[in-house]
Structure formats: structure tokens, C-alpha cells
Amino acid sequence: MAIRQNRVKQNFTTSSESVDLSVVIPVYNEEDNLEQLQDELDAALNALNIRYEIVFVNDGSRDNSASKLLEIANAHPNTVTFVDLRRNFGQTAAMSAGIDHSTGNIVVLMDADRQNDPADIGMLLGKLDEGYDVVSGWRYNRHDKFLTRRVPSMAANRLISWITGVRLHDYGCSLKAYRREVVDQIQLYGEMHRFIPVYAKVAGAQIAEVKVNHRPRVHGKSNYGLERTFKVLMDLITIRFLLRYHSKPMYLFGGVGAFLMGLSAITLLIAFLNKWIRGVFLIQTPLPQIASMFFVIGIQSILMGLVAELLVRTYYESQGKTIYVVRRVVRSSSNSNNE
């Protein structure tokens, strides 16, 4: 699955010294929110009296977000890193890019739409100080549309908690804090960002959940709709498979193959009993063909399991590759710029 015991992580950071906290923020068409978000972050993080950096990742925005972020990075050369992706790769890839280009011992993920409150970051860090590895935000009083956002979210949260066994009230809340050693063990891909706590739990992380402030959107529009529900369901199937069979896919494919071959034997036995007891010749019934079909599919399933085993071995033995392509990275003045 996506968790690797010894992740070979590419080191994009040129700074020789890490900071205490990295705030990673994927950005997609949020030009009207960015300046105010930066001001709020500076106010909240300066009050914590820690060394911090803010990593903005422009995920192929179609508005002027990239220009705004470049201005912010130039205006805050000591604290802001701007990662500009070549196109829209999706929120998961943008988060992964931000994490890979961050240096903090603690990583906080949040949205750029200003519905997450930067003032809550201190509360997340305080919970980490109690010994937890992951602290997840819970938007207890949400300011979203009830039918199109809140109802699907509540149903998804309960379903995810039931299937994965990791009990959280709000998987969709992006505001989460992670210790560096946790995120370094997780390889993100697809649209799996909402399941990071599940991956972390499998790796042995201690997870806590705290109520956070959720503010109504002032500028821009949401990039999520009801179509996300289908994606979540498909991701859940993947997650269930990864949790159960990530290291031994043969258990699944081999089990299905054995079951089908058993059905083949039973079907063939019924065909012979029909011939012996009722005098029905094998050529007069489709049962032999059905038995052959079950047998062939069963063999194919077992062979698929063997191929999956080879893929798993290849995955664990190969070096990880990023799921994004970076156009440029604008760093603080103390670091060298990557263009």
C-alpha cells in the first residue's frame, strides 16, 4: 500500500536547517483570498514564537493566483516558499509537493479558501505536545450548504470510519497537523489526501481530533460538488483493499480463484449426478460449460494474484517517484532559488 517502511524521499530543500513548523497550502483559483490568508497566518504564527515557513503550492490555477503568490513570496522572503506546478494535478499531488518542499519538524495542512482559521494552528500544536502524532480538525459548526456539502460529508465520514476502523468525525477537514516522521512514511497518490490519517494509523501513529473554527467562504467558489461522493466511494474500495491485502494480494485473488474452482467442481459433480440419476447426458446441459468457465476464471484469478505479488515486491523494492512536475520554486532569500 502507500505506506513504506523506508521511504526514499527526494530532498528538494536547499536549506541546511529545518524550521519548527511548515504550513502547506494547496492553491487553486483563490487569488482574492491569498493576501488576507497570508496576513492571518503571519499574525497567528508569530504569536506562537516558533520558527515557521509557509509553503504555497499553485496547482495550475487559471486565475491570477500564481502572480499573487509570487508577490507574497517576494514580500516575505524569510518565511514563504512558492511552489508552482506546471498544470492542475489535484489536491493530493499539490499537498505532496508542498510536503516534499517543506523543512518543518511539524507539517500543518490547510486550505487556501480562508474557511480554515489559522488561529487554530496553535491548538493543533498543543495537542501534538500531549504525545500525539496526528491531530485532525473537526469542523463542528460548518458553514457550507446543507444538502450538497454537509449531508454527503456526514455520510462519508461515518462510512469511512466504519470501513477503516479509524474513528474521525471529519475526514474532509484539511486542517491537520502531522509530525514529520509520519508524513515521511506516506506516499500520496490519486486523491488519497483525505485518508492520510488512515495511513498514519496503520503505521502506528497516535491520532487525536479537536474541534476547529470553520468560517463561511467570502471570496471565490468551492471546487467540490456532489460528484466527489462517487470518488470517495471508489477511493474507499481502494482503501479497503490496501488495508487488507496491500502486502499479500494473493490472499484476495487466490481466495476468489479457489472459490471459483470449487464452484466448478460442484457444477461438474451436479452434471454427472444428472447423468447417473436422471439420464441427462452432458451434451444436453450447459453445466459442463459453466464448470469450465468457473475453472478458467479461477485459474486466471490465481495468476492475477501471482502478478500482483510481483508488483508488490517491485513496489517495495523500487525508489519512490513524485506524482507532480514542478515549474519553479521561489524560496526565501537565505536559500537558493530554483527556477
Shape: elongated
Give the CATH superfamily of the largest domain: Spore Coat Polysaccharide Biosynthesis Protein SpsA, Chain A
Strand order, main sheet: write it out: 7-5-6-4-1-2-3-8
In the CATH scheme, what's the topology name of the largest domain? Spore Coat Polysaccharide Biosynthesis Protein SpsA, Chain A
- The CATH architecture of the largest domain is Alpha-Beta Complex
For the record, the count of structural domains works out to: 2
Order of helices and strands: EHEHEHEHEHEHHEHHHE
Rg from Cα: 25 Å
> Mean pLDDT across all residues, rounded?
82
Strand content: 5-15%
Write up what this structure looks like:
By secondary structure, this protein is α/β, with parallel strands linked by helices. It has 2 domains: 21-246, Spore Coat Polysaccharide Biosynthesis Protein SpsA, Chain A, CATH 3.90.550.10; 250-317. 45% of the residues lie in helices and 13% in strands. The protein has helices at 34-46, 65-75, 91-100, 121-128, 146-164, 180-183, 196-202, 227-245, 250-278, 287-317, and strands spanning 21-27, 52-58, 80-85, 106-109, 134-139, 176-179, 207-212, 326-330. Strands 7-5-6-4-1-2-3-8 form an 8-stranded mixed beta sheet, sandwiched between helices. Helix 5 (146-164) runs parallel beside helix 8 and helix 9 (250-278) runs antiparallel to helix 10. The longest helix has 31 residues, at 287-317.
